[in-house]
Specification:
The structure is a single chain. By secondary structure, the chain is mainly α. The protein is built from 4 helices and no strands. It comes from Erythrotrichia carnea. InterPro entries: ATP_synth_b/b'su_bac/chlpt. It is found in: Membrane. One of its GO terms (biological process) is proton motive force-driven ATP synthesis.
Length: 183
């Protein structure tokens, strides 16, 4: 007999018995086929043990393989996380260095601009002073020339009014003598 046929007969008997009398517990060993059930259970265990053992072993191997794979993936993920953290630290270090260099460069540029501005201011101030001195000198020359021109005009006017031919001859002779002494 097949195991499935035996199970089917047991279920058929149980269903017939429970439909006739209702459901209850029967303590008569011979009526309830306890010996047959025990023998049947022993056979099922004996025959099914290798199949059940191999099935459970296969399942256990699959579970262990899955656990081992999960642990490997966890280790890989941990390694990747550590690498990512190292890269993040390196990136942060580079960013900090760039910020420091940018600040130093900004300070240098600011100082350079200020120095150039001061130099330009000094140059403009010197240029302005030189322009003022030049303008003052030109104005002085113009004033001196104007004063000399006015003085000459005044002297000419006076000479015209006082100049006689005899006086002109005396002045010319005196100038000739001065020139002879220089030669």
């Amino acid at each position: 007999m097949n195991i499935t046929d035996n199970c089917a007969q047991v279920l058929l008997l149980i269903s017939e018995h429970s439909s006739e009398t209702g459901f209850g517990i029967n303590t008569n060993i011979f009526e309830i086929n306890a010996i047959n059930i025990g023998i049947l259970l022993g056979i099922v265990i004996y025959v099914g043990k290798p199949f059940l053992t191999s099935t459970l072993q296969t399942r256990q191997d699959k579970v262990l393989a899955s656990i081992q794979e999960a642990e490997e993936k966890l280790q890989q993920s941990s390694n990747r996380l550590l690498e990512a953290q190292k890269q993040l630290e390196q990136t942060q270090f580079v960013i900090d260095n760039i910020k420091k260099e940018a600040e130093v460069t900004a300070d240098k540029v600011q100082k350079s601009i200020l120095e150039q501005g001061e130099i330009e201011i000094e140059r403009l101030a010197a240029s302005g002073k030189a322009s003022i001195v030049t303008a003052e000198n030109q104005i002085r020359k113009q004033i001196q020339q104007h004063i000399a021109t006015l003085a000459l005009k005044r002297v000419l006017l006076q000479l015209k009014g006082e100049m006689t031919p005899d006086l002109q001859i005396k002045i010319i002779d005196a100038n000739i003598k001065q020139l002879e002494g220089q030669l």
